[in-house]
Amino acid sequence: MTLHAPETALAALGFTDTEAAIYCELLRASPSTGYRLAQAIGKAAANTYQALAALTQKGAVLVDEGDAKAYRAVPPAELLAALGRGFETRRAEAQSALEALYAPPADDRIYQVKTPAQVYERARAMIEGASEIVLFDLFPGPFETLRLPLAHAARKAVVAGLAYEEVADAGFAVVRSAAAAFARERWPGLQLSLVVDGREYLEVLLSADGSSVRHGVWSDSVYLTCMKHSGLAAEIQLSAATRGEAEDLRGISLLRSYPAGLRALVGPRDASEENAA
After folding, report:
1. How far apart are CA 91 and CA 15, in angstroms?
2. Closest Cα partner for 55 from 90, 87, 83?
3. Which terminus of the chain has fewer CB atoms gathered within 10 Å of its CB, N or C?
């Protein structure tokens, strides 16, 4: 883990250089007057007092309003907890305001996903929004990252997929891929594939250490998603049959599960199809 200078860490939290220098100086030697702080950090007194006023508003310092004003640093854990709560409040407000504007388009395009953080946030959102069926193909690292969201989704939807090592007590159907040995030895990175409700899919190849995206696409094209669903369901069923596993996975096939994306593509299933299923 990379360690940053204290002032650099505070800058990342929205502190100016002067504010960060003052707070760190107060951590080293509290209490102190504004005059002494200006001398210690090599800044003009006017700039120092302006920064102290801002730090007071941020809750980073305590002020003794005696004959000579003295300042004391709020303990780091207390400051960071307050900043975290403030950020969470602002985040929730921003989410409400932005979601009021957002009307998700269905435009049949294929979009690039460029960073691991974007990949995993998109994957979690897809899994959380699932209502009928989630299929997956996940190498060990991605599987462990998404295991808990998948387990939560399994409470309301069918969840089934391929893994590349033995998995016990997942709370959903996990089949060890018949090609696990080959894939783990020869595949040029970490595979992450998700197909949700026949509506959207995510297809990603991460670097071997998971730190970058070598190839990543997401789409809400129901046609392409149904094709992905059909292929992945067949691969899951084949791996299960190869291993002689007794679990019945016939219901995950596209025409048996008949997910929302397929209904949007071809219409509802008619009575004869219902009976055949």
Report:
1. 18
2. 83
3. N
| Residue 248 or 271, more confident | 248
**Domains of the chain, start order:** 6-94 (1.10.10.10), 110-267 (3.30.870.10)
Angle at 180 between CA 222 and CA 201, to 5 degrees: 15
**Against a cut of 0.85, is the pTM above it?**
no
Measured between alpha carbons, how far is 225 from 34 in angstroms, rounded to an integer? 63
Residue 99 class from Cβ within 10 Å (0-12 exposed, 13-18 middle, 19+ buried)?
A: exposed
Report the b/e string of 114-142 with b at 16+ CB within 10 A: eebeebbebbbebbeebebbbbbbbbebb
In this prediction, residues 208-230 reach a mean pLDDT of 96
Q: What angle do CA 217, 218, 222 make, to 5 degrees?
A: 130
